[in-house]
Design a protein that fits this description.
Layout lengths: L1 H18 L4 H20 L5 H15 L2 H9 L2 H4 L2 H22 L9 E7 L5 E8 L7 E10 L2 E9 L2 E2 H15 L4 H12 L1
Antiparallel strand pairs: 1-2, 2-3, 3-4, 4-5
Amino acid sequence: MKKICLLILSVLTFANVAVADINKDAAVQMVKNVTKEGIEQIINSNSSVEEKDRVFRKLFTENLDLDFIGKYVLGRYWRTATPAQKKEFIELYKEFNVKTWSKRFDEFKGKEFIFDGTTPANNPNQVFVNTSVPMQEGKPASVKWRVNDVNGKLKIIDIIIENVSLAQTARNEYTSFIAKSPKGVEGLLENLRAKIK
């Protein structure tokens, strides 16, 4: 009888988890807010580099799960990094991406993101929001946004441009750098500090 009760409980628990799939419409709306109110408006304006960086910094802080991304990007080295190194890496990673993508998204100046629905992820708490950007030459550029739901709070955890994952690319680059650096994680931090300056 006890086993039957446990079995029923586990089925009910699984059912509750299944019902708690990510809200796809909310994920799409969140990405629309990021692209429309942030990227398109600031990129299409004549704002200064400083103003663009400020807007991108706000977008990254409010809409990306930097802790989640930081853990993923550092891979196994996240476990060996000190609390101070983890904290600094998150800040440096954010600042580096602010400057990188402020310039990268200039490629989309005068363009508009077209929303092409969603694609399920392996994790029921995540979904890919599919967008494309018409370009002057060739086919539209594909931009996919991986959105994660943590306790009802939606955050972007990866951006895939033309099938290239920013998170995976950074992970490959950073873990390779750490493995080769005599200073390990500290060596990566020094490298990021220099790049930002």
